[in-house]
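Hey L., structure's done. Input below.
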Amino acid sequence: MAKQQDLQKEKIWTRDFIFICMANFFIFAGFQMTLPTLPLFVNELGGSDQLIGFVVGIFTLSALLIRPWSGHVLESLGRRIIFLIGLLVFVISVGSYAFTGSLVLLFLMRVVQGLGWGMSTTAVGTIATDLIPQKRRGEGMGYFGLAGNLAMAFGPALGLFLIALSGFKTMFLIAASAGLLSFIIASIIRYKPANKTPIEKKKWDIFEKTALMPSILLFFITMVFGGIATFLPLYAEQLGIDGIEWYFVVFAVSLMLVRAFAGRIYDRKGHKAIFLPGAFLILAAMIDLTLLANQFMLILAAVLFGIGFGSVQPALQAWAVNEAPIHRKGMANATFFSFFDLGVGLGAMFFGLIASTFGYADIYLTAGISVLISMVIYVIYLKRSAAVQRHHEAVQWK
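Output:
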Protein backbone atom coordinates (compact mmCIF):
# COMPACT_ATOMS: atom_id res chain seq x y z
CA MET A 1 0.00 0.00 0.00
CA ALA A 2 2.80 2.37 0.93
CA LYS A 3 4.58 1.51 -2.31
CA GLN A 4 1.44 2.29 -4.30
CA GLN A 5 1.13 5.68 -2.55
CA ASP A 6 4.76 6.44 -3.36
CA LEU A 7 4.13 5.66 -7.03
CA GLN A 8 1.09 7.96 -6.97
CA LYS A 9 3.24 10.77 -5.58
CA GLU A 10 5.72 10.26 -8.41
CA LYS A 11 3.04 10.40 -11.11
CA ILE A 12 3.67 13.00 -13.82
CA TRP A 13 0.54 12.86 -16.00
CA THR A 14 -2.05 14.35 -13.65
CA ARG A 15 -5.18 16.30 -14.69
CA ASP A 16 -3.54 19.69 -14.12
CA PHE A 17 -0.26 18.69 -15.75
CA ILE A 18 -2.19 17.77 -18.91
CA PHE A 19 -4.00 21.13 -18.79
CA ILE A 20 -0.78 23.11 -18.31
CA CYS A 21 0.76 21.27 -21.27
CA MET A 22 -2.30 22.17 -23.38
CA ALA A 23 -2.13 25.82 -22.29
CA ASN A 24 1.58 25.86 -23.09
CA PHE A 25 0.88 24.35 -26.51
CA PHE A 26 -1.61 27.04 -27.55
CA ILE A 27 0.40 30.02 -26.26
CA PHE A 28 3.46 28.72 -28.11
CA ALA A 29 1.39 28.03 -31.22
CA GLY A 30 0.32 31.69 -31.29
CA PHE A 31 3.90 32.80 -30.74
CA GLN A 32 5.45 30.40 -33.26
CA MET A 33 3.08 31.52 -36.02
CA THR A 34 4.52 35.03 -35.75
CA LEU A 35 8.15 33.95 -35.43
CA PRO A 36 9.11 33.57 -39.12
CA THR A 37 6.35 35.86 -40.43
CA LEU A 38 6.98 39.03 -38.41
CA PRO A 39 10.35 39.71 -40.12
CA LEU A 40 8.52 39.39 -43.46
CA PHE A 41 5.83 41.78 -42.16
CA VAL A 42 8.45 44.34 -41.13
CA ASN A 43 10.07 43.94 -44.54
CA GLU A 44 6.72 44.57 -46.24
CA LEU A 45 6.26 47.75 -44.17
CA GLY A 46 9.63 48.99 -45.46
CA GLY A 47 11.93 47.97 -42.62
CA SER A 48 15.62 47.09 -43.10
CA ASP A 49 17.48 44.03 -41.76
CA GLN A 50 18.75 46.11 -38.86
CA LEU A 51 15.22 47.30 -38.04
CA ILE A 52 13.94 43.71 -38.25
CA GLY A 53 16.48 42.70 -35.62
CA PHE A 54 15.50 45.67 -33.46
CA VAL A 55 11.76 44.92 -33.64
CA VAL A 56 12.37 41.28 -32.71
CA GLY A 57 14.87 42.20 -30.01
CA ILE A 58 12.75 44.79 -28.22
CA PHE A 59 10.09 42.14 -27.68
CA THR A 60 12.47 39.91 -25.73
CA LEU A 61 14.01 42.81 -23.82
CA SER A 62 10.60 43.98 -22.59
CA ALA A 63 9.89 40.39 -21.52
CA LEU A 64 13.23 40.45 -19.69
CA LEU A 65 12.25 43.55 -17.71
CA ILE A 66 8.96 42.07 -16.48
CA ARG A 67 10.29 38.66 -15.42
CA PRO A 68 11.84 39.57 -12.00
CA TRP A 69 8.57 41.26 -10.95
CA SER A 70 6.65 38.25 -12.26
CA GLY A 71 8.82 35.92 -10.19
CA HIS A 72 7.99 37.80 -6.99
CA VAL A 73 4.26 37.95 -7.75
CA LEU A 74 4.20 34.21 -8.48
CA GLU A 75 5.36 33.59 -4.91
CA SER A 76 3.41 36.32 -3.09
CA LEU A 77 0.05 36.42 -4.92
CA GLY A 78 0.05 32.99 -6.53
CA ARG A 79 0.43 31.52 -10.01
CA ARG A 80 -3.08 32.13 -11.38
CA ILE A 81 -3.16 35.94 -11.48
CA ILE A 82 0.17 36.45 -13.25
CA PHE A 83 -0.50 33.65 -15.76
CA LEU A 84 -3.97 34.87 -16.75
CA ILE A 85 -2.97 38.54 -16.99
CA GLY A 86 0.07 37.64 -19.08
CA LEU A 87 -2.02 35.56 -21.49
CA LEU A 88 -4.61 38.32 -21.87
CA VAL A 89 -1.94 40.92 -22.67
CA PHE A 90 -0.43 38.55 -25.22
CA VAL A 91 -3.78 37.99 -26.95
CA ILE A 92 -4.55 41.71 -27.21
CA SER A 93 -1.10 42.66 -28.51
CA VAL A 94 -0.85 39.92 -31.16
CA GLY A 95 -4.43 40.63 -32.31
CA SER A 96 -3.53 44.31 -32.72
CA TYR A 97 -0.94 43.43 -35.39
CA ALA A 98 -3.81 42.63 -37.75
CA PHE A 99 -4.73 46.33 -37.74
CA THR A 100 -1.21 47.77 -37.72
CA GLY A 101 0.17 49.56 -40.77
CA SER A 102 2.89 51.58 -39.08
CA LEU A 103 6.34 50.49 -37.98
CA VAL A 104 6.13 52.81 -34.96
CA LEU A 105 2.85 51.27 -33.79
CA LEU A 106 4.20 47.77 -34.47
CA PHE A 107 7.25 48.58 -32.35
CA LEU A 108 5.07 49.77 -29.45
CA MET A 109 2.83 46.71 -29.56
CA ARG A 110 5.88 44.45 -29.65
CA VAL A 111 6.88 45.98 -26.33
CA VAL A 112 3.41 45.18 -24.96
CA GLN A 113 3.57 41.64 -26.35
CA GLY A 114 6.91 41.15 -24.63
CA LEU A 115 5.36 42.07 -21.28
CA GLY A 116 2.57 39.53 -21.76
CA TRP A 117 5.01 36.89 -22.97
CA GLY A 118 7.36 37.48 -20.05
CA MET A 119 4.57 37.11 -17.49
CA SER A 120 2.89 34.09 -19.07
CA THR A 121 6.02 32.04 -19.81
CA THR A 122 7.55 32.70 -16.38
CA ALA A 123 4.28 31.53 -14.84
CA VAL A 124 3.75 28.48 -17.06
CA GLY A 125 7.21 27.08 -16.39
CA THR A 126 6.80 27.59 -12.64
CA ILE A 127 3.35 25.96 -12.64
CA ALA A 128 4.74 22.96 -14.50
CA THR A 129 7.57 22.75 -11.94
CA ASP A 130 4.96 22.69 -9.14
CA LEU A 131 3.15 19.77 -10.76
CA ILE A 132 6.16 17.55 -11.54
CA PRO A 133 7.66 15.31 -8.79
CA GLN A 134 11.18 16.48 -7.98
CA LYS A 135 12.78 13.08 -8.62
CA ARG A 136 11.31 13.07 -12.15
CA ARG A 137 11.78 16.76 -12.93
CA GLY A 138 14.17 16.29 -15.84
CA GLU A 139 11.81 13.80 -17.47
CA GLY A 140 8.73 15.87 -16.63
CA MET A 141 10.20 19.10 -18.02
CA GLY A 142 11.05 17.16 -21.15
CA TYR A 143 7.41 16.11 -21.54
CA PHE A 144 6.23 19.63 -20.73
CA GLY A 145 8.55 21.03 -23.37
CA LEU A 146 7.01 18.69 -25.94
CA ALA A 147 3.89 20.87 -25.94
CA GLY A 148 5.91 23.85 -27.06
CA ASN A 149 7.80 21.69 -29.54
CA LEU A 150 4.58 20.38 -31.05
CA ALA A 151 3.46 23.98 -31.55
CA MET A 152 6.84 24.66 -33.10
CA ALA A 153 6.33 21.76 -35.49
CA PHE A 154 3.43 23.35 -37.30
CA GLY A 155 3.22 26.97 -36.01
CA PRO A 156 5.86 28.56 -38.28
CA ALA A 157 4.74 26.55 -41.31
CA LEU A 158 1.07 27.43 -40.62
CA GLY A 159 1.96 31.10 -40.25
CA LEU A 160 3.82 31.14 -43.57
CA PHE A 161 0.98 29.20 -45.22
CA LEU A 162 -1.67 31.62 -43.92
CA ILE A 163 0.08 34.76 -45.14
CA ALA A 164 0.45 33.16 -48.59
CA LEU A 165 -3.23 32.13 -48.56
CA SER A 166 -5.01 35.01 -46.82
CA GLY A 167 -2.45 37.64 -45.84
CA PHE A 168 -0.97 38.91 -42.61
CA LYS A 169 -4.27 40.06 -41.04
CA THR A 170 -5.81 36.58 -40.98
CA MET A 171 -2.61 35.04 -39.70
CA PHE A 172 -2.31 37.48 -36.78
CA LEU A 173 -5.97 37.00 -35.78
CA ILE A 174 -5.59 33.20 -35.77
CA ALA A 175 -2.39 33.51 -33.70
CA ALA A 176 -4.27 35.67 -31.18
CA SER A 177 -7.07 33.07 -31.09
CA ALA A 178 -4.54 30.41 -30.10
CA GLY A 179 -3.55 32.60 -27.16
CA LEU A 180 -7.21 32.96 -26.24
CA LEU A 181 -7.59 29.16 -26.12
CA SER A 182 -4.61 29.04 -23.78
CA PHE A 183 -6.33 31.61 -21.53
CA ILE A 184 -9.53 29.51 -21.39
CA ILE A 185 -7.63 26.34 -20.46
CA ALA A 186 -5.51 28.20 -17.90
CA SER A 187 -8.66 29.42 -16.13
CA ILE A 188 -9.64 25.83 -15.11
CA ILE A 189 -6.27 24.70 -13.74
CA ARG A 190 -5.96 24.15 -9.98
CA TYR A 191 -2.98 26.19 -8.82
CA LYS A 192 -0.61 25.93 -5.89
CA PRO A 193 -1.79 28.32 -3.11
CA ALA A 194 0.04 31.62 -2.69
CA ASN A 195 2.80 31.68 -0.08
CA LYS A 196 1.25 33.11 3.11
CA THR A 197 4.56 33.21 4.98
CA PRO A 198 6.37 36.57 4.61
CA ILE A 199 9.66 36.12 2.76
CA GLU A 200 12.53 38.49 3.39
CA LYS A 201 13.43 40.32 0.21
CA LYS A 202 16.63 42.09 -0.70
CA LYS A 203 16.41 45.55 -2.21
CA TRP A 204 17.75 44.41 -5.58
CA ASP A 205 16.26 40.94 -5.67
CA ILE A 206 16.06 40.49 -9.44
CA PHE A 207 17.51 37.00 -9.89
CA GLU A 208 18.03 33.67 -8.12
CA LYS A 209 21.77 33.14 -7.63
CA THR A 210 21.57 29.33 -7.66
CA ALA A 211 20.14 29.50 -11.21
CA LEU A 212 22.87 31.77 -12.59
CA MET A 213 25.26 29.21 -14.09
CA PRO A 214 22.67 27.28 -16.17
CA SER A 215 21.11 30.63 -17.14
CA ILE A 216 24.44 32.06 -18.35
CA LEU A 217 25.04 28.95 -20.44
CA LEU A 218 21.52 29.29 -21.85
CA PHE A 219 22.24 32.92 -22.81
CA PHE A 220 25.03 31.94 -25.21
CA ILE A 221 22.92 29.12 -26.66
CA THR A 222 19.86 31.32 -27.27
CA MET A 223 21.98 33.95 -29.02
CA VAL A 224 21.94 31.29 -31.74
CA PHE A 225 18.17 30.92 -31.52
CA GLY A 226 17.68 34.65 -32.17
CA GLY A 227 19.75 34.49 -35.33
CA ILE A 228 17.91 31.47 -36.73
CA ALA A 229 14.36 32.52 -35.88
CA THR A 230 14.77 36.04 -37.22
CA PHE A 231 16.90 35.75 -40.35
CA LEU A 232 16.84 32.17 -41.64
CA PRO A 233 13.71 32.68 -43.83
CA LEU A 234 15.35 35.73 -45.45
CA TYR A 235 18.68 33.89 -45.80
CA ALA A 236 17.04 30.90 -47.52
CA GLU A 237 15.08 33.23 -49.82
CA GLN A 238 18.26 35.08 -50.78
CA LEU A 239 19.98 31.78 -51.68
CA GLY A 240 16.94 30.56 -53.61
CA ILE A 241 16.50 27.55 -51.33
CA ASP A 242 12.93 26.31 -50.97
CA GLY A 243 11.45 24.43 -48.02
CA ILE A 244 12.01 26.84 -45.14
CA GLU A 245 8.67 25.62 -43.75
CA TRP A 246 10.15 22.11 -43.56
CA TYR A 247 13.13 23.40 -41.61
CA PHE A 248 10.85 24.39 -38.72
CA VAL A 249 8.90 21.12 -38.91
CA VAL A 250 12.03 18.94 -38.89
CA PHE A 251 13.59 21.06 -36.15
CA ALA A 252 10.51 20.63 -33.93
CA VAL A 253 10.20 16.90 -34.62
CA SER A 254 13.87 16.44 -33.69
CA LEU A 255 13.22 18.35 -30.47
CA MET A 256 10.26 16.14 -29.61
CA LEU A 257 12.11 12.90 -30.26
CA VAL A 258 15.02 13.79 -27.99
CA ARG A 259 13.43 15.71 -25.09
CA ALA A 260 12.01 12.93 -22.92
CA PHE A 261 15.02 10.70 -23.61
CA ALA A 262 17.46 13.47 -22.65
CA GLY A 263 15.36 14.27 -19.57
CA ARG A 264 15.73 10.71 -18.28
CA ILE A 265 19.50 10.88 -18.80
CA TYR A 266 19.57 14.15 -16.83
CA ASP A 267 17.61 12.59 -13.94
CA ARG A 268 20.07 9.67 -13.77
CA LYS A 269 23.42 11.30 -14.60
CA GLY A 270 22.94 15.08 -14.38
CA HIS A 271 23.93 17.88 -16.74
CA LYS A 272 27.45 16.49 -17.27
CA ALA A 273 26.01 13.83 -19.58
CA ILE A 274 23.91 16.33 -21.55
CA PHE A 275 25.41 19.77 -22.02
CA LEU A 276 28.64 19.28 -23.96
CA PRO A 277 27.27 16.71 -26.46
CA GLY A 278 24.17 18.86 -27.05
CA ALA A 279 26.20 22.06 -27.46
CA PHE A 280 28.53 20.30 -29.92
CA LEU A 281 25.53 19.40 -32.13
CA ILE A 282 24.35 23.02 -32.06
CA LEU A 283 27.85 24.15 -33.07
CA ALA A 284 27.78 21.68 -35.98
CA ALA A 285 24.40 23.10 -37.07
CA MET A 286 25.86 26.64 -37.12
CA ILE A 287 28.80 25.52 -39.27
CA ASP A 288 26.32 23.85 -41.63
CA LEU A 289 24.27 27.06 -41.95
CA THR A 290 27.38 29.14 -42.54
CA LEU A 291 28.11 26.97 -45.58
CA LEU A 292 24.43 26.59 -46.59
CA ALA A 293 24.10 25.71 -50.29
CA ASN A 294 21.02 23.50 -50.74
CA GLN A 295 17.88 22.11 -49.13
CA PHE A 296 19.66 19.00 -47.79
CA MET A 297 22.02 21.19 -45.75
CA LEU A 298 19.04 23.21 -44.51
CA ILE A 299 17.28 20.07 -43.23
CA LEU A 300 20.52 18.69 -41.77
CA ALA A 301 20.91 21.90 -39.76
CA ALA A 302 17.34 21.47 -38.48
CA VAL A 303 18.12 17.92 -37.26
CA LEU A 304 21.41 18.89 -35.60
CA PHE A 305 20.01 22.02 -33.95
CA GLY A 306 16.81 20.23 -32.90
CA ILE A 307 18.61 17.36 -31.18
CA GLY A 308 21.17 19.70 -29.59
CA PHE A 309 18.74 22.32 -28.34
CA GLY A 310 16.18 19.68 -27.34
CA SER A 311 18.79 18.08 -25.09
CA VAL A 312 20.34 21.20 -23.61
CA GLN A 313 17.37 23.48 -22.86
CA PRO A 314 15.28 21.20 -20.57
CA ALA A 315 18.42 19.97 -18.79
CA LEU A 316 19.50 23.54 -18.05
CA GLN A 317 16.00 24.46 -16.84
CA ALA A 318 15.79 21.42 -14.54
CA TRP A 319 19.27 22.29 -13.21
CA ALA A 320 18.22 25.89 -12.53
CA VAL A 321 15.01 24.92 -10.70
CA ASN A 322 16.42 21.98 -8.71
CA GLU A 323 19.17 24.11 -7.16
CA ALA A 324 16.76 26.80 -5.92
CA PRO A 325 15.14 26.85 -2.44
CA ILE A 326 11.49 25.76 -2.34
CA HIS A 327 10.20 29.35 -1.98
CA ARG A 328 12.40 30.57 -4.86
CA LYS A 329 11.24 28.30 -7.69
CA GLY A 330 9.39 31.20 -9.32
CA MET A 331 12.48 33.42 -9.20
CA ALA A 332 14.62 30.57 -10.55
CA ASN A 333 12.32 30.27 -13.57
CA ALA A 334 12.28 34.06 -13.91
CA THR A 335 16.09 34.11 -13.91
CA PHE A 336 16.29 31.27 -16.40
CA PHE A 337 13.88 32.81 -18.89
CA SER A 338 15.36 36.29 -18.41
CA PHE A 339 18.64 34.98 -19.78
CA PHE A 340 16.70 33.19 -22.52
CA ASP A 341 15.09 36.51 -23.50
CA LEU A 342 18.37 38.39 -23.24
CA GLY A 343 20.08 35.91 -25.54
CA VAL A 344 17.32 35.96 -28.16
CA GLY A 345 16.91 39.74 -27.97
CA LEU A 346 20.56 40.71 -28.12
CA GLY A 347 21.15 38.00 -30.71
CA ALA A 348 18.45 39.39 -32.99
CA MET A 349 19.77 42.95 -32.65
CA PHE A 350 23.42 42.00 -33.01
CA PHE A 351 22.80 39.67 -35.93
CA GLY A 352 20.68 42.32 -37.62
CA LEU A 353 23.73 44.58 -37.57
CA ILE A 354 25.93 41.75 -38.92
CA ALA A 355 23.41 40.96 -41.69
CA SER A 356 23.26 44.57 -42.86
CA THR A 357 27.07 44.99 -42.70
CA PHE A 358 28.45 41.61 -43.84
CA GLY A 359 25.68 39.19 -44.85
CA TYR A 360 23.46 36.41 -43.56
CA ALA A 361 26.12 33.67 -43.63
CA ASP A 362 28.24 35.60 -41.12
CA ILE A 363 25.35 35.49 -38.65
CA TYR A 364 25.77 31.75 -38.22
CA LEU A 365 29.56 31.92 -38.08
CA THR A 366 29.22 34.35 -35.17
CA ALA A 367 26.52 32.18 -33.60
CA GLY A 368 28.92 29.23 -33.67
CA ILE A 369 31.46 31.30 -31.72
CA SER A 370 28.74 32.01 -29.13
CA VAL A 371 28.12 28.26 -28.67
CA LEU A 372 31.85 27.66 -28.35
CA ILE A 373 32.04 30.28 -25.59
CA SER A 374 29.29 28.45 -23.65
CA MET A 375 31.26 25.20 -23.91
CA VAL A 376 34.43 26.86 -22.59
CA ILE A 377 32.52 28.42 -19.67
CA TYR A 378 31.03 25.04 -18.81
CA VAL A 379 34.40 23.27 -18.81
CA ILE A 380 35.82 25.98 -16.52
CA TYR A 381 32.78 25.56 -14.22
CA LEU A 382 33.32 21.78 -14.03
CA LYS A 383 37.01 22.19 -13.18
CA ARG A 384 36.27 24.74 -10.45
CA SER A 385 33.47 22.60 -9.01
CA ALA A 386 35.79 19.60 -8.90
CA ALA A 387 38.46 21.66 -7.16
CA VAL A 388 35.96 22.91 -4.54
CA GLN A 389 34.74 19.34 -3.98
CA ARG A 390 38.29 18.07 -3.46
CA HIS A 391 38.94 20.89 -0.97
CA HIS A 392 35.80 20.04 1.03
CA GLU A 393 36.73 16.35 1.08
CA ALA A 394 40.24 17.21 2.27
CA VAL A 395 38.86 19.40 5.09
CA GLN A 396 36.42 16.68 6.17
CA TRP A 397 39.20 14.05 6.13
CA LYS A 398 41.33 16.18 8.44
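The two ends are 45 Å apart (CA to CA). The chain is about 80% helix and 0% strand.

-- N.
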